[in-house]
Amino acid sequence: MTQPAVDLTIVGSIGIDTIETPAEKREEILGGSVSYACAAASFFTHTGMVGVVGTDFPQAFLDTWKDMNIDLEGLQTVEGKTFRWSGVYEENMDNRTTLSTELNVFETFSPELPEAYRDAPYLFLGNIHPALQLHVLEQVRNPKFILIDTMDLWINIDKEDLTKVIGKCTMLTLNESEAELFTGERTLNKAAKKLLELGPEYVLIKKGGNGSMLFNHEEVFLLHAYPLDHFKDPTGAGDTFAGGLMGALAASGKTDREAIRQAMVYGSIAASFGVEEFSLDRLAKLDRDEIEIRVAEFKEMCRI
Ligand code: AMP
Hints:
Layout: E1 8-11, E2 15-20, E3 25-31, H1 33-41, E4 47-54, H2 59-67, E5 75-78, E6 84-89, E7 96-102, E8 122-125, H3 130-139, E9 145-149, H4 152-157, H5 159-166, E10 171-175, H6 176-183, H7 188-196, E11 202-206, E12 212-215, E13 220-223, H8 237-252, H9 257-274, H10 281-285, H11 288-302
Helix pairs in contact: 1-8, 3-5, 6-7, 8-9, 9-11
Bound molecules: adenosine monophosphate.
């Protein structure tokens, strides 16, 4: 059998972001769910990106991805402007307000997977319209592990398609408030139980700086977040976490609970680096050794 061209396919949004934190404002920087996720995954496995940019997309951003060895065959370039998003963080950096969203070429995006991506054993459906996530599932051939992410917007406007696509995936990831919004349950245990009933084997709830929780029908696994002295920009942390997790899982070749736990540690550490700088700035300078050193330090912190 010939080796598939990529081990992990990731689909999602690509944005040019303007972000304001209490300390700093950065304009027109590289963002989007698939950008963060592919960057994190690229440390561990050969990753293919599926997304759309406009003809205004800067060459420097493409070079950032190329330098990370991300496969760009699934990237579409369409006449027009790239998706743009801007947001502002409050003083505590926990709450964020969206200031503007310009869909531009993202409005008519239809993810089309290159032939070489369709046999990838691992698939990450990043945050895009659930009907488009379903469209991706029609194109892939038997992936052994599918992770799906979403956001409050789709829970509010297309819960039906979202429910359908979640039922076809191995793992669902979402944050605490989205889990509550989806299920109406106030405790994460009850919310996770309801979400597992939709069909995925695992539900992974992200709790920002408080770590994450992995649920399946048998057990719960708790993972702390790596404690940082300082961070600059939490945008995309969830995508970096999920991308790192999927990259590490793909590199292991496994899909069992133990492998998922280990992959979650890598995802969490990738995210801890990602938030140290804006955009992909820190991930672009990062190397695998630094990841391993922080993973070891983190495991020592958690040892009981
Ligand atoms: P997160 O911090 O996980 O919410 O991810 C932030 C990234 O999501 C930013 O880089 C944005 O470009 C992108 N984004 C913002 N709004 C949307 C949206 N409606 N659909 C898809 N991606 C979005």
